[in-house]
Amino acid sequence: MRQSVLFFLPLSILAAATLAASSQDDAVLEAARRSQLEFRQGNLAVAEPLVKSLEQAVAKSPDNGQLWETLGHAYMSLQGSLYAGPLDIPRLIDTGTHARDAYARSLALKGDNALGRASHGMSQFVVSQLSGDAPGMQAGIDEMNAAVRQWPTSKAVRLTRGFTMIHLPPAMRDTNAVIDDLKFIMDVAPGGRQEDVLHVLLGDVYAEVGNLPSARKEYEQVTGGSAFAAEQVKMRFTDLAKGAIPADSIVTVRMGTGTRCSMCHAPGTDN
Length: 271
Prior knowledge:
Elements: H1 2-40, H2 47-60, H3 65-82, H4 89-110, H5 114-131, H6 134-150, H7 155-165, H8 175-188, H9 193-208, H10 212-220, H11 227-242, H12 247-254
Helix pairs in contact: 1-2, 1-3, 2-3, 3-4, 4-5, 5-6, 5-7, 6-7, 7-8, 8-9, 9-10, 9-11
């Protein structure tokens, strides 16, 4: 009898500790979700404390794959925030490497999943691009392509691949894949602001490869739901009449993908 009591007592303590850890992890994940929403509304300052809180969380719960994946997202947000200041390439590479490692740890714990796999490919691509590692860039692209093949109807996967590869020069990217992703995202977008910005992004892709009729068709579909998109389109038509769209104008819109999601989603503002 004493042996059975001594046996079950540690189990009960372990169960209680596991439940407490689970509850704490859930609270951390919910706080991270809120911080990511703030980040996407333009508050870049939340990225660094978000990373620190998740680093502390995975130190306490190293076998929680969801925490590791969320930490990967936080590192990528932090990397995005770094572009707002003077470029520090070593820090950008280091932050992206931490993200890639966090995604890899998550995949090892959770198993293969759509967002984790696409995000690992994205971080691999970004780190390799910053490092000048062409084979590494291709490996990242291959991983994102594989994720699209495995989960072709995943919005998260399509957004990850499309909004990553769109930043490559036309001669280096698979433009058809980018167009396919943007069209897929547009089909599931709720309209209004989001769809307006997507039409500008897609029109710019067509313009870059010289398909001006398709570019104009996309620009013409901007409704004004996004004042930002409407202003960009007005500039596009003026520039096209002069001969070409300046690269700076295209970059202005693309730099908002992933780091300034308020461009599409924030209510009542076009900042």
